[in-house]
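Narrative of accomplishments. A recurring question from our advisory board has been how the design workflow behaves on a single, concrete structure rather than in aggregate. To address it, we present the structure tokens for one chain from the evaluation set, followed by the sequence designed for it. No filtering or post-editing was applied between the two.
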């Protein structure tokens, strides 16, 4: 099922409300005038609400699924429904808002 491509300005949060930001978006491909993000790109997380005594806070996240058919620079692009795992908590990321013009599979 097609999903919208993630871009640098997408709102992505850890499950505890921390803001996730891509470390290295792909500058050669843009949607809505912002660079897209591919699967190898790690995300950093700021403001995670999980207390340290509960195994948190989330610090980074790595994507474990991405588009199967769409690539940029030989790397699979991230979609709105792509899945990620946060470290050190092992929880996921939630894509709250992204561009709504370009879809991929």
């Amino acid at each position: 099922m097609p999903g919208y491509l993630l871009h640098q300005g997408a709102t992505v949060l850890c499950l505890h409300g921390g803001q996730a930001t891509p470390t290295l978006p792909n500058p050669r491909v843009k949607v809505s005038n912002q660079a897209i993000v591919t699967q190898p790109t790690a995300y950093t997380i700021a403001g995670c609400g999980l207390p340290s005594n509960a195994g948190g806070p989330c610090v980074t996240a790595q994507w474990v699924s991405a588009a199967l058919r769409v690539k940029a620079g030989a790397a699979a692009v991230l979609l709105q429904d792509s899945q990620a795992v946060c470290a050190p908590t092992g929880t996921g990321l939630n894509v709250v808002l992204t561009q709504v013009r370009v879809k991929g599979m």
